[in-house]
């Protein structure tokens, strides 16, 4: 018996690899389109709620949810930590149903 793989077997293997590569690229592309740009300026709609007793607006809650993946970055920044970790900011996050991450 010949133990060498046939041309058909090699072509099938190559086809599977090509399909997998295309699938992987599509997944990476989807991740890139869903990536969040971390910018504390995106939380501008929350400024009033963070600095007063005003309730958060819908726009504030939407932005806070959008920026959720960035909260650790903000908490680890000494210039932002006091704002993001303030009692008012915690109240706003709670009212918007956004959990504060453990960083």
UniProtKB/TrEMBL annotation:
CDD domains assigned to the protein according to its UniProt record, in alphabetical order: nsLTP2 (cd01959)
Recorded hits in Gene3D superfamilies, A to Z, give: Plant lipid-transfer and hydrophobic proteins
Q: Which SMART domains match?
A: AAI
InterPro entries per record: Bifun_inhib/LTP/seed_sf, Bifunc_inhib/LTP/seed_store, nsLTP2
Which Pfam families does this UniProt record tie to the protein?
Tryp_alpha_amyl
Bifunctional inhibitor/plant lipid transfer protein/seed storage helical domain residues: 38-103
Q: Does this UniProt record's set of keywords contain Kinase?
A: no
Record keyword Transport present: yes
- Alphabetical GO biological process terms: lipid transport
Keyword tags:
Lipid-binding, Transport
MF terms in GO? lipid binding
Know the name of this protein?
Bifunctional inhibitor/plant lipid transfer protein/seed storage helical domain-containing protein
